[in-house]
Amino acid sequence: MGLRAATSRIYRGEISADIVGRPKIWYTISGLLLALSIAGLLVQGLNFGVEFKGGSVFTFKAPSASIEQVRTAVGDGGAHQVIVQKAGEDWRVTTESMSSSHVTEVKTSITEELKVPAAKVSTQVVGASWGGEIQKKAWQALIVFMILIIAYLSVAFEWRMAVAAVVALVHDLVITAGIYAWSGFEVTPATLLGFLTILGYSLYDAVVVFDMIKEVTKPLGPTSKTTYSEAANQALSSTLVRSLNTSLVAILPVGAILFIGTTLFGAGTLKDLSLALFVGMIVGTYSSICVATPLLVQFKEREPKYRQIRENIARRERNASKQVKTAKVTAGAGAAGKPDAGDADDAGDHADASGDRDDVRSTVTVRKVVQTGSRQQPKRGTRQQRRGGK
After folding, report:
1. Which of 77, 118, 179, 262 is least buried, going by the fewest C-beta atoms within 10 A?
2. H or E segment at 205?
3. Quick one: which of 306, 308, 305, 288 has its CA closest to 153?
4. Low complexity bias located where (predicted)?
5. How many CA within 13 A on the CB side of residue 61?
6. Cβ neighbour number for residue 5 with a 10 Å cutoff
7. What is the pLDDT of residues 85-132, one digit of tens each?
């Protein structure tokens, strides 16, 4: 079966993939992704926008200007940390935080060198304290979100599922942040919205899978013929197609915004949000299937109930194997004690040959006796005659 045919059958739900039974593969992949992401965060770092670190923002239209011309015009006004971005015909230039008089000088330089009317140049000054407050609020929102997730999953399911889901969420956040660091995209409030969105999306996938696992594993008992791992894998296989379809439908429009909108239509304000959503949806789908579920199974297999089920199944398999071996040995012994049909034929042939030889011997003996008797009879008669004659 080719890869394409196997993939199509899995997608249609005709065959099940052994995902739960291969946790080392998924943990290795996740470990590599996490290591790469952490390296990006340590080496590159996140490029925080002006909303977080503070600064001055100049926005204007100059269709005929180049990036170097815009950077030179802003630098001639006295700015030092100049970051130039273009979205369509709009230029967005970010600098360090400056005073009002300094902002006016930069604005004047843009007007004179790029021939842009002063009324068309919009300015915005963000203080560092305001950016720090935004970061603080973002961390608070993330912590509250995690607490609510743990509480909900602990009540709706159990604490093991809550722990597995939280591990998957942290996994998604770190990988998405690492890719953000390597890409050099600016972290803006829209990025935070994207991060919170992917957390909810990843949680949705995990809840769907966990709910199916809970339903499938509920009837398991001491006499069950299926372990928790096998039942969980069946539940995961039944929801695999649903998860892939949902992810594909959600990723397509986000990918269109990221790759088509930002390149062809200049939707620069949406690229931060779309990158976080695009990466987070892919990683979230992977983590809910290949990270959260195998981790949950490992937690559950340590419970006495499911450990006893596994031991009972193993014992029954050993007994069945012993019975098969005993049956084979008995069948072999019976075959050895019973004469073979060929052997019986050979024995019959030998018996017939012996009988033939005995018959031949008897016939020869009778003939000899008869011959001897016939010879002696005349001799005896002749002697009597002789005696009588005498």
Report:
1. 118
2. helix 189-217
3. 288
4. 324-339
5. 5
6. 9
7. 776 677 888 887 777 888 888 888 888 888 888 888 888 777 766 667
122: helix, coil or strand?
strand
Whole-number Å distance between alpha carbons of 97 and 127? 7
The amino acid occupying position 372 is T
Among the listed residues 26, 1, 4, the one whose alpha carbon sits nearest the alpha carbon of residue 296: 26
Take residue 69 and report the two structure tokens written for it. Answer: 């011309």
In 177-198, which positions are buried (b, 16+ CB within 10 angstroms) versus exposed (e)? bbbbbeeebbbbebbbebbbbb
Are 37 and 179 spatial neighbours (Cβ–Cβ below 8 Å)?
A: yes
Q: Are 169 and 205 in contact (CB under 8 A)?
A: no
Classify residue 294 by burial, with Cβ atoms within 10 Å: 0-12, 13-18, 19+: buried
**Which among 196, 117, 185 has a CA at the least distance from the CA of 149?**
196
Please tell me the total number of residues recorded for the chain in this structure: 390
pTM of the shown model: 0.70
Percent of the chain past pLDDT 90, that is, above it, reads: 9
Q: Is 94 helix (H, G, I), strand (E, B) or coil?
A: strand
Structural domains for the chain: 17-47+131-308 (1.20.1640.10), 55-126 (3.30.70.980)
DSSP tag of 120: G
Tens of pLDDT, residue by residue over 172-200, are 989 999 998 898 887 877 788 888 888 88
Q: What contacts 124, CB < 8 A, 6 or more positions away?
A: 56, 57, 59
The residues, any chain, with a CB within 8 Å of residue 308's CB and separated by 6 or more, are 222
The answer to whether 233 and 18 are in contact (CB under 8 A) is: yes
